Amino acid sequence: MSGHTKKVRYAVVGGGQISQQAFMPGIAATENSELAALVTGDPVKADQLANKYGIKAWSYDQYETLLHSGEIDAVYVATPNALHVNYVVSALEAGIHVLLEKPATASLADAEQIMDVQKRSGTKLMVAYRLHHEPGTVEMVTRAQRGDFGDLRFFTASFAQNIAEENSRGHNGYWGGPVPDMGTYPLNAVRNLFGLEPISAHAVGGKTAGRTFNFHDTVAVTLQFPGDRVAQFTVSYATAPVERFTLVGTKTTIEASPCFMFGADVGITYIETNAEGSKTHEFDPVEQFGNETQYFSDCILHDREPEADAEEGWLDVRVLAAIEQSLETGEVVPLEPIKRSRRLEPDQALNLKPANAPTEKQLINVISQSA
Ligand SMILES: NC(=O)c1ccc[n+]([C@@H]2O[C@H](COP(=O)([O-])OP(=O)(O)OC[C@H]3O[C@@H](n4cnc5c(N)ncnc54)[C@H](OP(=O)(O)O)[C@@H]3O)[C@@H](O)[C@H]2O)c1
After folding, report:
1. Which residues, other chains included, contact 152 with Cβ-Cβ below 8 Å and sequence gap of 6+?
2. pLDDT of residue 6
3. Pocket (CB within 6 angstroms of ligand 1)
4. From the CA atom positions of the chain, what is the Rg in Å?
5. Which helix H or strand E contains 206, and what residues bound it?
6. Is 26 within 8 Å of 293 (Cβ atoms)?
7. Cα separation, 348 vs 344, whole angstroms
8. How many CB atoms are located within 10 Å of the residue 346 CB?
9. What is the pTM of this model?
10. From the alpha carbon of 83, which atom of ligand 1 is closest?
């Protein structure tokens, strides 16, 4: 850790949109974390982006050297999904903690490998589920779990954006596409709201005329959960934006929107409706990236295991893999019944104020995801 201030020193791996727009500015809102290095393949970013934050840039070829340099304590891995695994495994093996962007990996085998290496290494890993530290989300999950909404019966959600084919997520097959990228949000939400793991997955996908994605750009998923609970979500890369979910219990319905995004203007909000009427619960925008980093650094500094650990990432990836299989076969894909060893806790909610984020125009050499 850095000197007497006890701050966890992070290297950013991949200076793409999320690193520039969210993680790098967000870390300034924390008390216990600092930027220490940038790993990039782009000489312009190595110069301008590293200079902007006063940090040293390293190339991907120098990654191993960086891991053993003594200059960092942790990495934030924000490369395209299919490239996460190698950066994660090398870091864990070098004793460097890992904050890993979602989805954890682009295959089940990679997610299993990460779980194994993490256990063996004893180094900490957290999947960057920023909403696990967002007060509105944590309140919904906490209330769902303590029975405020009755017996939880079903969940539906929509999450869509208009994504540019040129962006890395626009041409890398299923694992760069909308199910792993955006479906992870409703999937992770419903797993935590129900406090259960799905027992089957079925999906139907379509390709929008005039678009050139090399995967189904719009996908509807149905999940079955223990106790005859069901969940459905639809995600798309080719439509107007939408983000909402509905959770229905035997006593109460909650309708949440916005519920998946982040930003200085995004206050997570839900409407609770029951026999007595409707009530809106609106939460102030928070620094979601700073919050998750503050929490993870706290786990590192106090030797606690983060809640969104490698198992939490793997539990989403195993469903994403089943959805891929269902899209290929048209069949319902059974999932082995499983119990998660831990769940999101109420005290994980943090309230750091939103940092000043650069506009999309101010980003350095980013191929925007917006079409
Ligand atoms: N938590 C959230 O809200 C959130 C939001 C968006 C994205 N994400 C996740 O964060 C990760 C990155 O997403 P992003 O939107 O930042 O993507 P992006 O803009 O495409 O950036 C990815 C970066 O990875 C680096 N990279 C290394 N090898 C690459 C290769 N072969 N091809 C392309 N890029 C390569 C590049 O950085 P250099 O040029 O510096 O090498 C690139 O800019 C994904 O896993 C995504 O799911 C999370």
Report:
1. 144, 193, 194, 229, 247, 248, 249
2. 87
3. 14-19, 40-42, 45, 78-81, 83, 101-102, 128, 130, 167-168, 181, 262, 366, 369
4. 20
5. strand 200-206
6. yes
7. 7
8. 13
9. 0.98
10. 28
